[in-house]
Amino acid sequence: MANSLVAFPTELQLPVEVIGCDLFGQQFFETTETLSISRSEVSILLNCKLAADAEVILRNPETNEEAIACVVGQLHEEGDGHVYGLVFLDPSVNLWHIKFPEATSAKMLQLACSTCHGLGTHLLSEAEVEICEAGGELTRRCEKCNSTALWRDPNRLASPKKPANASKQKPIPILAATPKEDRRKTRRALMTMTACVRYSGLEDVVTCEDISKGGFRFTGRKQYPEGTRVEVAVPYEDSTTNIFSPAVVKYCHPMPKGLFRHGVSHVKSSGSGTWYS
């Protein structure tokens, strides 16, 4: 398929290896094939479940070339697997050495954060637009909340009642078209790390993921409601001196098997803001 001119996008089955952390923070390695591909996006079928906005490594097994891609969201389920739309963080990568037509413009949509209800204009890839129109919402970072949040059509967000199939009735309007830009200001590290969450004198050792300068995400059995102020140590080692700093829980999402996924944001303190334990 190298050096072949393909449509934009097109259905194309190409070998790919996927490396990353699943919805529950467990590392995985899976060999699969692409379902469709364009200049900067790809859709793939995976057995494991992935979180929206998570980063994974895609590898071409024929050349061992690698690239980092971000999970835009789940497009649909297929058999026992899940079809995800991903966008390459570096739009210049070309893992399979395919010739594409001239790049089309990204679409700009106005969405509302479901947490703070703030409006924002977002540059979306074709995969992101498809997910928005299919599910009525998209997971992206909110700078005001300083965490990842669900973004929706502001008209749908403000509506007091929404029919069960409303997400498939109203595609989000396209406002303008502009060139593609960097999707995130604060890069997250594709890794897992042990952390400790201290609340009301009790310590909870957890495995965090998607670590960035502003905070991290973790999944555990203990529930911390949104807005809870905690102290966190990242990284954390049981037998050494650990540094705790203030943080706040930005969101708490229930997960299968009695688990809860939390987004935690570091808080700037007027004092030293540091504790040792």
What does this entry show, briefly?
This protein has 277 residues and is mainly β. It has helices spanning 126-135, 154-158; strands at residues 10-11, 15-21, 27-37, 41-46, 55-60, 65-78, 81-88, 106-113, 119-124, 137-142, 147-152, 176-178, 189-199, 202-211, 215-220, 229-233, 243-254, 260-266, 275-276.
What can you tell me about this protein's structure?
By secondary structure, this protein is mostly beta strands. It has three domains: 79 residues, Thrombin, subunit H; 73 residues, no CATH class; 88 residues, Beta Barrel (Thrombin, subunit H). It contains two helices and 19 strands. It has a six-stranded antiparallel beta barrel. The chain has a six-stranded antiparallel β-barrel with strand order 13-14-15-18-17-16. Strands 8, 9, 10, 11 and 12 form a five-stranded antiparallel beta sheet that branches. A hairpin with a 2-residue loop joins strand 6 and strand 7. The relative contact order is 0.13. The N terminus and C terminus are likely disordered.
- Please tell me what the overall shape is: globular
CATH architecture of the largest domain: Beta Barrel
CA-CA gap between termini: 57 Å
Helix percent reads under 10%
The strand order across the widest sheet is: 2-3-4-7-6-5
Any idea of the CATH class of the largest domain?
Answer: Mainly Beta
Radius of gyration: 20 Å
Please count the beta strands (DSSP E, at least 2 residues each).
19
List unreliable stretches of 5+ residues: 1-8, 158-190, 272-277
SSE string, helices as H and strands as E: EEEEEEEEEHEEHEEEEEEEE
Q: Tell me what portion of residues adopts beta-strand conformation.
A: over 45%
Could you describe the largest sheet, including whether it forms a barrel?
Answer: 6 strands, antiparallel, barrel
| CATH-level-4 superfamily name of the largest domain | predicted glycosyltransferase like domains
Helix and strand content put the structural class at mainly beta
Tally of structural domains: 3
